[in-house]
Write a structure and sequence with these properties.
five-stranded mixed sheet; 8 helices; globular; about 250 residues; alpha/beta; about 40% helix
């Protein structure tokens, strides 16, 4: 924040505060200058934000308008990947490690639980994590740990719930588009599953824009800028800012 304020003072450019999560959302509007612009997402849309710290379903009826539908009640999806990777002896970060280990695994080897939390749009991954822990601790100690099968079955369970809830919300709210964003949206199994099951146009940023980056923040700031938002230098960091409470420019 102080670096941004210094740039403002030195350049005379405006400062615009944005939410980190809306930065992830607006990564789907970005493209490289030397490429053909992709079709812009159309509203209303249902957005799934999946990262190490957040798992949330959001309804967007227009630019910068966010209606909270549901979120994780415990571990975020990315956090669950990290914890299960640690259980399996895989490297951090867990997302890429489990994805790579899953290549040689059978996603049907273990029937891990799916927490559907009926009649809500919320998520829960703590029970799934516990189920993996139980298999690791109580498996056959005389045999090598079936890491590939455990990883593939865990990943399949996470993806099944993420995609299932997103598709259901899309139908419930008659969304014209689906948007997936956040670090976990780089996961190949998630990308493939939602592409197969999507019932309307799908927008997922390229992998290089899925993790935290400056371009996505600039993208969100652009849409605030063209709507007249200008902030003051006394603005401060908000460590916890629910997306549904982020105001649109007046």
């Amino acid at each position: 924040m102080n670096a941004a304020k210094g740039l403002v003072l030195g350049s005379g450019l405006p400062i615009i505060g944005v939410s980190h999560l809306e930065g992830h959302l607006y990564s789907s509007w970005l493209y490289k200058p030397d490429t053909t612009p992709p079709p812009a997402p159309k509203f209303p849309l249902v957005a799934l934000i999946v990262s190490g710290g957040h798992t949330e379903l959001v309804l967007m009826k227009d630019h910068l308008q966010y209606q909270h539908l549901g979120a994780t009640l415990d571990d975020a999806a990315g956090e669950a990947f990290d914890k299960v990777a640690r259980l399996l002896g895989l490297e951090y970060p867990g997302g890429p490690s489990i994805q790579n280990a899953s290549v040689d695994g059978n996603p049907l080897a273990y029937n891990f639980p799916r927490a559907w939390l009926e009649d809500t749009w919320d998520f829960s991954f703590s029970g799934l994590k516990t189920a993996v822990m139980r298999e690791v601790r109580h498996g056959d100690s005389q045999k090598p740990l079936p890491v590939a099968d455990l990883a593939a079955s865990f990943q399949a369970a996470v993806v099944d719930v993420l995609v299932g809830k997103t598709i259901k919300a899309t139908k419930e709210y008659a969304a014209k588009n689906i948007l997936v964003a956040g670090g976990v949206s780089a996961n190949r199994a998630l990308r493939h599953a939602i592409q197969v099951r999507a019932t309307c146009p799908l927008h997922i940023p390229p992998v290089w824009l899925c993790t935290d980056n400056a371009a996505m923040i600039a993208g969100a700031a652009y849409f605030r800028y063209i709507r007249g938002q200008r902030d003051q230098l006394d603005m401060d960091v908000l460590p916890n800012w629910p997306l549904s409470e982020v105001p649109a420019p007046i």
